[in-house]
Amino acid sequence: RIALVWFRDDLRLDDHPALRAATEAGYLPLPVYIHAPEEEGGWAPGAASEAWRHRSLRALDAMLRARRSRLRIFRGPSLQTLQSLLAATDAEAVFWNRRYEPAIEQRDAAIKRALRRQGARAESFNGALLFEPWQLATRRGDPYRAFAPFWTSARAAWREPAPWDAPGGFDALPDEDAIPHGLALDALRLAPARGWDDGFWERFVPGERGARDALSAFVEGALHGYRDTRDVPAARGTSRLSPHLHFGEVSVARVAATVRASVDAPPADVERFLGELGWREFSYHLLHHFPQTVDTSLDPRFDDFPWAPPAPARLRAWRRGATGVPIVDAGMRQLRSTGWMHNRVRMIVASYLTKHLRMHWLHGARWFWAALVDADLASNTLGWQWIAGTGADAAPYFRIFNPVVQARRFDPDGAYVARWLPELAALPPPLRFAPWEDPAALRRAAPAYPRRPLVDPAAGRAAALEAYAKVRGPR
Length: 475
Ligand code: FAD
Known about the structure:
- The chain is mainly alpha-helical.
- It is built from 20 helices and five strands.
- A five-stranded parallel β-sheet has the order 3-2-1-4-5, sandwiched between helices.
- Strand 2, helix 2 (47-65) and strand 3 (72-75) form a beta-alpha-beta unit.
- The longest helix is centred in the middle third of the chain and has 23 residues, at 267-289.
- The chain is globular and about 75 Å long.
């Protein structure tokens, strides 16, 4: 008896509920992956994300081969591919772990109905979250719109995760040769041809082993003191687990259990880290209840917001890290070089785009989507709407990050700016954050760096406050 185990954003064997259900029900698991970006509802994965996926799929296949199995790769449409695989293999069942992006939820519900109609067993599981997005609700049964009460109720409902260990090997499939072999991974053309992603792999190792190593390194290192150092972009103060979690190379239950089992870690650091996993949970809660927010502001008062008219040159400067504001440019260059950006700097660059340049948050969300290896529809939507002030639990309208003040506070010795903008390293730290204040020194140190910021931090703040004041009334 065979069951197809349909791998998606759960590219691991450890603590994999669908694989567990298949093996515990006595099926021989047949691992399949279906490439179908056109089914993602306008949010087909971006280039950085696909580069990661390429390596992650390769790693998963290698792990399966070490267990006398392999990953069979196909191109969509997903339903037809599953149907023809069921027919070709005499499999009785299809098991998968749920994804929660709105277009995928709809697609998967339709697939489940169609497979069941034809007599197959089709079942899905939660392999991605600590809580199902619909599980927690206010006393009145409404979705939460603010993080603090959401997380209080999550902590009250907390059940200590008990992750499942994958078997060391799988039983051989009958008549292996008769089963469709699928495509070679390279045929999907996920990996960039020109190597612009080389810098990504200096820090990151996609795949389950890389994820477990990153988790161990974090638990032994940055977890200690996490509460304070998580905000310092020059430090290695966070876990960098986000792409591993997005691709499901490690389960969030495994992460939570490992962190909580770390006996010598200060409880305040552990609790703060769990809270960050909580933001991830909250983002899925919001995405589920407010699916329209992937491209419209949750707060309808922003339908008429006076966003700045289109300014392609300004947007290009922001993307390229050439705004003339060093902390913003450093972040955008870190993103381009590594496929990742520190959370504090994500907030600063997002605030500069939406408040100072007053561009619609979707411009930023789309660029992050293309450039981040951890691009995640739930977290990205929440992050952008939170900063723009258009979403649930939004930062208050008057919270406009001053990039110079932020840099002074979180990068006091200027190490982060110097790392990503080496041309400014010769300027001493206070000036390194606002080089326009000494034009002669700037010209000497970095002749090619913009003379002036695209929008001056103080003037931009005033203009943004005026625009935001128009939507300040009650919801
Ligand atoms: P750690 O501090 O080690 O946190 C552990 C984990 O908690 C992270 O891996 C992540 O899964 C989760 N987490 C932490 N902070 C947040 C948060 N604010 N919201 C949701 N989950 C969080 N995160 C993404 O994974 N994908 C995105 O596309 C994404 N886009 C963002 C866009 C903007 C504008 C902003 C402000 C934030 C965005 N974030 C996104 C959230 C956050 O910046 C990253 O999760 C974090 O920087 C990842 O680094 P880390 O793994 O070292 O985090």
